[in-house]
Amino acid sequence: MTRIYSVLSFFLCSGIAAAFLFGNAGNGPSAQRAADVNKGMEIAQQICSTCHIVGKDAKGVVKADVPSFTSIADKPGQTTEFIVGRLVLPYRPMPDLKLTRLEMADVAAYIMSLREKQ
Ligand code: HEC
User: Fold this and answer.
1) Which of 14, 52, 104 best tests ligand 1's pocket when mutated (most atoms within 8 Å of CB)?
2) Hey, whose CA ends up nearest to atom 11 of ligand 1?
3) Residue nearest to ligand 1 atom 25, measured at CA
4) Ligand 1 pocket by Cβ (under 6 Å)
5) Is 88 contained in some domain?
6) Does residue 45 lie within any of the structural domains?
7) CA–CA separation, 32 vs 46, rounded Å?
8) Number of domains within the chain
9) Domain assignment of residue 79, given as a range
10) Burial of 1 (0-12, 13-18, 19+ CB in 10 A)
11) pLDDT tens-digit series, residues 40-72
C-alpha cells in the first residue's frame, strides 16, 4: 500500500512538474523563458548549499546524509521533471523552499547540467 502510494505520488509529482515546466509554453504574454542554468547555479549557491554540495568539487563541510548535486544528477534515469517534483513536494528532512516554478526549473536545469552519465 505504501509502495503504491509512493508510486502514485511520484507520477502525480512528475505530472505537476511537467505542467509547471511546459504548461505555459508559448501562451501569450505569460509565456515563460527557457530554464536558465546560470540562474539555477546562483540559486543553488545561495539557498541549497547550506545543506547540499552544489558544485562539481566537494568544498567545505560535507553532510553525510544529504546527497550532493552531482550524485543527484547522476542517478540512473534522472530527469529534470523528477528534480522539480522533489522541490514541489519535498521529502523530510528536505524543507519546502518555496521557490517559484521558474526558479525550480532553473535549479533543476543546473543540477542536470552536472550529469556526467548518459
Ligand atoms: C535544510 C537542508 C536542505 C536544503 C536547504 C536543501 N536541501 Fe535538498 N535535500 C536535503 C536532504 C536532507 C535531502 C535528502 C532527503 C531524502 O532522504 O530523500 C535532500 C534531497 C534533495 C533532492 C532529492 C534527491 C533524490 O535523489 O531524491 C533534491 C532534488 C534536492 N534535495 C534539491 C535541492 C535544491 C534544488 C535545493 C535548493 C533550492 C535544496 N535541495 C535545498 C536537504 C536540503
Assistant:
1) 52
2) 94
3) 72
4) 43, 47-48, 50-52, 65-67, 72, 75, 83, 86-87, 91, 93-95, 97, 99, 107
5) yes
6) yes
7) 23
8) 1
9) 2-22+36-113
10) exposed
11) 999 999 999 988 999 987 665 666 788 999 999
